């Protein structure tokens, strides 16, 4: 639930200028009340994405063959950002769990029936290139 809310909030934040983020977040939580733990985890996810977005976007670009980031559908782009942030910056969550959750969310919210396969492929590339250190 927290990841779904994080995805929805990231989606909305992408539609407004950065100076409107605070108001958007406040309105979002008024419209999507959640348990405190769920809201806190979603907020941590979103904050992590926003703090590291240039690096996250670079990593995603390097992990996608023949795609520009702006050409990836907004849902998938933000889901990749969310899962990549979780895999790289949140040590309490196993990376494979982040990947599996992102794939399941893509099955529900993806812009196509095959979005989950795209998400899976990109996140596997992120995992192999940036998460596992051999």
Protein architecture, described:
The protein has 134 residues and is mostly helical. The protein has one domain: Orthogonal Bundle (N-utilizing Substance Protein B Homolog, Chain A). It is 75% helix and 0% strand. The chain contains six helices and no strands. Helix 4 packs antiparallel against helix 5 and helix 5 runs antiparallel to helix 6. It starts with a helix and ends with a helix. The model has no long low-confidence stretch (mean pLDDT 91).
Write the layout of secondary structure elements.
Blueprint: H1 2-14, H2 21-31, H3 36-63, H4 74-89, H5 95-109, H6 115-131
CATH level-four homologous superfamily name: NusB-like
Give the distance, in angstroms, between the N- and C-terminal Cα atoms. 33 Å
Structural class: mainly alpha
Kindly state the percentage of residues in helix: over 70%
N-to-C SSE string, H for helix and E for strand: HHHHHH
Q: Can you tell me the number of structural domains? A: 1
**Strand percentage:** under 5%
The Cα radius of gyration reads 14 Å
Number of helical segments? 6
The CATH architecture assignment turns out to be Orthogonal Bundle
- Overall form: globular
**How confident is the prediction overall: mean pLDDT?**
91
Unreliable segments of 5+ consecutive residues = none
What do we call the CATH topology?
Answer: N-utilizing Substance Protein B Homolog, Chain A
State the major sheet.
Answer: none
CATH class: Mainly Alpha
Write down how many β-strands occur, each being a DSSP E stretch of 2 or more residues. Answer: 0
């Amino acid at each position: 639930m927290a990841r779904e809310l994080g995805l929805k909030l990231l989606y909305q934040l992408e539609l407004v200028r950065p100076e409107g983020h605070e108001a958007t977040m406040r309105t979002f939580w008024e419209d999507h009340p959640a348990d405190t733990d769920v809201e806190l985890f979603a907020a941590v996810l979103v904050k992590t994405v926003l703090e590291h977005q240039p690096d996250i976007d670079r990593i995603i670009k390097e992990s996608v063959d023949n795609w520009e980031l702006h050409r990836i559908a907004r849902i998938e782009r933000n889901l990749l950002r969310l899962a990549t942030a979780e895999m790289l910056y949140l040590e309490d969550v196993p990376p494979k769990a982040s990947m599996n959750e992102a794939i399941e969310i893509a099955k529900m919210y993806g812009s196509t029936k095959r979005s989950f396969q795209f998400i899976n492929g990109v996140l596997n590339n992120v995992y192999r290139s940036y998460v596992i250190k051999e």
